[in-house]
Request: fold
Amino acid sequence: MNPLPEFPAEEARYRALQELDPRAAGALEVLVTGLHDESWRVRHVAAEALKRLPSSREVAERLIRVLGERGETGARNAAAEALAGLGGAALGPLVTLLGHPDPDQRKFAADILGQLGLRAAELPLVQALEDPDLNVRVAVSEALGRVGGEHSARALEGLLTDAESLLRLSALEGLALLRRPPPLPVVLAMLEDTRLQRSAFRVLGLVPEVVATERICQGLASPVRSVREAALGALGTQVALVEPARRGEVEAVVRAALRRLPDAAQRLVQALECEDVTVRSGALVSAAALGEASLALPVAEAAREDRLLREVLNTLGRLGPEGGRALLAHMADLSSPARAAAAEALADLVDPGSVTALCALLEWAEDDLRAVVVRALGRTRSPEAVPPLVDLLVAPSLAGAATRALGVLAGSNRTAVLEALEEAVTRRATSAAVAALARVGGAPALPALRQLARDAEPTWRAAAVEAAGEVDGAVGRELARAALADEAVQVRAAGVRAMGRLGGPEAGALLRPALHDEDASVRLAAVEAVGESGATDRASELEALVRHPDGALAVAAVRALARLGMAGPGVLMDAAAHPDAEVVKAALSAGALSAVGVELAVALLGHPRWDVRAAAARVLGDAGGPERLDVARRALEAEADALARQTLSDAVERLSRR
Amino acid sequence: MPRFDDSRPEMSLEEFRLLRDHVYSHCGILVHEDMKFVMERRLWPRLEALGLPDFGAYHRYLRYDAQRHAELEAAVEALTTHETYFFREPSQLKAFCDELLPVLEKRNSRLKRLRLWSAGCSSGEEAYTLAMLLKDSRRFDDWDVEVYGTDISRRVLSMARRAEYGASALRATSADLLERHFQPAGNNRVRVRDEVRSWVSFGHHNLLDETGSQLVPRMDVVFCRNVMIYFDQAARRRVLRIVRDRLVPGGYLLLGHSENLLNLGADFELVHLQGDLVYRRPELPGLTTTGGEGR
Reply:
């Protein structure tokens, strides 16, 4: 094959490389030529193609030769990029390169080994710390931080006393990456060196001790902004590591430190706008410790970063009713994520005076936000919140939240809630009011429910049937029985669900027609209801459904049989053979504590789906005997999925204790 | 410590993985491991609305229920944050106005037709911003101009069509721009003026849907800013293929400032403008490129 054709345009050369068959003879040399192209796009596509070549030492060695071409900066960088994508095949040649006479080459080797991140490079890199060239030693130190491992950590710790501050700095950064803080006195000493201060704070944040918090807080008082931010970053890191029970200790130290600063709130506002997420996280922790309501809006805005949501909610919850009022007054000014976080927090910050502002918010807020506002309304304890909540029952997406909120509100305003709900039912505002009425009204609501169960509209009949069972078992059964013969699907489904919840000696017989209903949703509800009601006389019908091709029905059948205590070996084997993994997992869950279940779990440790393997591991850990330890260990060795590995590891640990 | 509603179910790691994979296979949006808490909070209202007891039940709902497709869209809407504002990344917009608009005016002067795509437009701020910039440039007054905003979330599209905004969306909007392009809408909110809205249209589009992308007309410029951060490399490649296909040869792609096409092997050339770096779909071989200096 000829080298890269002399196409007139960059685009044509780019296309030629993109369309090149990497298995063709001479492809390697064509791509290496591409690494030398004047256009970065062509160099980049060549590097990408080189990564896709069948990985081999030959390719790695050829690329390493390009690294040696002085004056070819573009080609060298592109070759380094390709080498970093070759994986294990590049390891040997790069380790060899660490011994090259040219320090530039040795530095390249260290950089790329760092990018590869292979643990096998650990020892050669540790040895390379003896390199006579400082730049190489610094590159090696940085690479060790990425490669990780015990030897790396020890070697980096050893560098902390090196005479070269660059090396000390890269070692600190490496230890921060490895999340391996050196002993506290060592870190504290390094904080005195201004060149190392930022990195030392990063490492200090990894020490979950109050002594470290105290030193971090000294940083918060620094007149230098970069030091303050480094300290806040350390605080953000530290709080994530401290056990929740000890968080109060940390906050007490922070609070004391911040109260000594006249402009603490101002500084936190500034820090909450910082680019660095860990700094913002530390600022949130500080704001929570300070409990300063004027910070409510910048704190809420920190929710624009998803990763900070937990801390934002926690902090907003600490700003008290005054913080809540500040949020409510400025909801329209907040960004969308900030509004969502503020609304979430408001549920804990509202008081009876918040109703008007919450209702104003309902006028324009997005749907998902309104659901949270509804919850907050329920917590105001104000009778003024009743009418808007009853009105919201008509919104399908909010009816559930409004019903629950009315239930909470009824704790302090029962009469007002009840009257409003009765009125809503009388004017047929929404069937959701029926459930709320039953929940709040109790037995006195039964006559109204009986009447509604005979309503001309199926929606009302269905609502009444479901609600009656919540109030009185006998009346509920009576209405559910009638509903099972209703001509409307939604009423039959409601009757089935109610019968499932209420149970009773006749439940099985009454549910039988529903298992064969013409409508799939009624059949599915009936399967679940059989399990819930304990109707063991319907087990044989459920057993037949375990093999049903509809995964939803099969899962429901397995779960129902398990609830009935009738998921025998045959059922479990049938379910385990189902093509739908959800059915297989249902089988594992159903047989969790039985000998058959353990056998099944062992057989399923090799299932192609990670979630099935994890479920099998859990069963093994829960119910397996010590004789299963070997099989669990073998599975653990073979497991590639992180989550399944974790579950298997737990199982091995539990089995080894038996 | 604050009281958060303890009756809400927690999401196990396995449930998180199953839901995350489900969402990913639908639209390429990848929710990272450290986002479990966020996913849990964002999906709670969905569980509440559906009356489901836990996330296992929610996963089964997404797998089996007759309404699963609609619910998957609702889940995606809940999971994608829609944080944007008018005149975001001003230096890029300045480069767009000062350096790309003259090129586009010259290129398209015969047809007097200009098409811009705000891909992943969220609640419309970017699409309207572009229309405002085109209006203010006075270069395209008698042209056939369309700024086309698309998003996977129907909810944000309805907000975009309403064109009403609060202070947060206006935090980078100067007083004179506010005066020129917005009118009061009550309740401390403003509405985009009709003359700007007339140049903007919106449509529902999943950026990974190659079939659906055929409905997007050929574009002179695509703004796809801070959208691909939600995707993994494989999904980004697919999006870029679709975007390239929708661009005219020589058309421009503008990404967010924290984004680039490194390691994506995309078919775009980098263009160094005075004030920014942008990408361009190469001209067909034989045609000369204009605007900026391709490297």
Notes: Residues 90-107 of chain B form the longest helix (18 residues).
